[in-house]
Amino acid sequence: MKQTWEDLGTEYESSSSVLIADADCTQEQELCQEHGVKGYPTIKYYPAGEGREGKPYQGGRDKDSLKKFVQDTLEVKCDVNSKEGCTDKEIKFIDSMKEKASADRQAQITRLDKMKGDKMKPELKAWVMQRLSILRSLEA
Q1: Residue 81 covered by a domain
Q2: Pick from 10, 88, 125, 140: most CB atoms within 10 A?
Q3: CA–CA separation, 41 vs 126, rounded Å?
Q4: Cβ count near 54 (within 10 Å)
Q5: Which domain range does residue 120 map to?
Q6: Cβ burial 87-104 (10 Å sphere, 16+ → b, else e)
Q7: 1 and 28 belong to one structural domain
């Protein structure tokens, strides 16, 4: 299960809407207790906009099952051209970046690429990844 989870995390590491994470409950006992983890491995998911209460994942534990669940349930795609599937925050960012020169967008990509490996709150990391996805789509 550990390798499957790591592989899935690697696959989604540049996602703007999906964060695959884990916690070692022998080290992070308070965090695990706060999230109701009682057995190992426990898989929970946290849909955007539905608060901090995680939902238990009940599907298959092989990579294909996990990936299908992420694609069907969690992955949000923002289309920079039609703005379909985009949040108000993303639309505002798209509009501001469309006005900029390609060199300016490339500079933002470089800056955000450096930031994405830094330690930060999950919400900030998600916003960094969303901006990278938008900028790369604008440059495509």
Answers
A1: no
A2: 125
A3: 24
A4: 16
A5: 88-139
A6: eeebeebbeebeeeeeee
A7: yes
| Residue 10, CA distances (Å) to 4, 5, 81, 138 in order | 10, 9, 27, 24
The angle formed by the CA atoms of residues 81, 86 and 90, to the nearest 5 degrees, is 90
Length of the chain: 140
Question: What pairing do the DSSP bridges indicate for beta strands 55-56 and 44-45?
Answer: antiparallel
- Rounded to two decimals, the pTM is 0.58
Task: Let me know if residue 82 belongs to a domain.
Answer: no
- Tell me: cis bond preceding 56? Omega within 30 of 0 counts: no
Q: How do residues 96-110 score in pLDDT, each as one tens digit?
A: 999 999 999 999 999
Place of tokens 């109701």: 36
CATH of the domain at 29: 3.40.30.10
70 plus 103 within the same structural domain: no
Beta bridge pairs of residue 56:
44
Residue for token digits 């989604």? Answer: 12
